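Contributing new complexes? Match this layout with guanosine-5'-triphosphate.
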Amino acid sequence: MNAILVGTITSQDRYDWKDSLDELADLAKTLGIHPIHRITQKIEKPNNKTYIGSGKLNEIWIAVHTHNIEIVIFDDELSPTQLRNIQDFLEIEIMDRSYLILKIFEQRASTKEAKLQINLAKDLYLLPRLSFLREKESRIGGTSGSLATRGAGETQKELDRRHLMAEIYRIKEELKQIKAMKLSQIEKRKKNDIPVVALVGYTNAGKSSTMNSILQYTDAENKSVLEKDQLFATLQTYNKKIEYDKKSFILVDTIGFVSKLPHHLIESFYQTLQEVKNADLILHIIDSSNSHIQQQYQVVCDVLYQLGITDIPTIFVFTKWDKTINSSMEIVGKKNIMISNKTKYHIPDLIKMIVEEISPSTIHSSFLIPYTEGQLISLLETQSKIYQKEYQDYGIFYDVELPIKLYSKFKIYDLDLMVS
Ligand SMILES: Nc1nc2c(ncn2[C@@H]2O[C@H](COP(=O)(O)OP(=O)(O)OP(=O)(O)O)[C@@H](O)[C@H]2O)c(=O)[nH]1
Ligand SMILES: [Mg+2]
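Output block (do not edit by hand):
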């Protein structure tokens, strides 16, 4: 199926329009659509009624008929009005970026929760567009079969609308139950005090592969997660308990991010990102070989910000180092590491870094240090946080927060150990 891709170039765009269209082309290809032509328009603000100007619409109409085009895909979410007007003018199948992403998610969803989430997002998208999307439904991918045909009678439309609303209600109820169950699992884990480490990143960055590499090098349940060269291979969160060096943590694989995600998807699907909100550590996975590395990094930061995730300690993990000639990106002053899931370069170092981050780095203790231990006293004075200090008969009493690595030097003077 041949397609034309249509994008606008506005002054407020946060992401490069060309990158955005490249990505739209990749998204379309995953559904078996062939984007063979692109049309763009420089515009201050998209037109409320037709998204682009009427001159451009004419240009598209001509292109449709010269290139044997069957579908026109817009690189933004179109409002119901824009969609209807464009469809009336071009008399050809129209799709927008949101619907394309929804379709991909629909094809990939395999678990019950993922299917419910995607159905909800799709129903919410379709509700205001109900009366003119039937044709599209039946041509790309599966069909829901219950949508009104173009020009169907008002009664039928109303019935379809009610049917959809009832379905939305039912899905929301089911999802509520699943969410309650998940929350209680999170609570339980918090009580057990097992730290949670969440992998987040742009789609196809290598999150699942990194999870599998970590699983290979640690004592974990010997199961792997799906990794694939495909946009949105992972469509729900997966948890694995990991043991390493007598420490354990839960590693969480998540759905990838992409720019201009349909907002219904952010709302409903990203409920599954609760796990990330509760994480003790985030591994922000960045594909170092990707030419759009900077934009992808920005999208992930933006989505995390939208989700209210701003103050969780983060390690920036640059994957695919084996095929990176020179990375155009550097995150100065932050914890980062370059790895390869192919050659396993730096995987043990990454695991050590994770364990270090999730292990407490200081210890709270009370000591009685003899006056003769001048060196220890000066170490405490300079390296620890002192809560209380008292000169006593046999030495100085200290109540302090001390770096764990120094603790062994002071262990014999630990008051808790002396008493017992
Ligand atoms: N050469 C190389 N390829 C890698 C590396 N890490 C991942 N890949 C490949 O990149 C592709 C995507 O990897 P995934 O781990 O599925 O990516 P993801 O971030 O989980 O993607 P989604 O679940 O789709 O969001 C796969 O084909 C992997 O084999 C790496 O370090 N080096
Ligand atoms: Mg994945």
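Reviewers usually confirm one structural detail per submission. For this one: Residues 109 and 115 are 5 Å apart (CA to CA).
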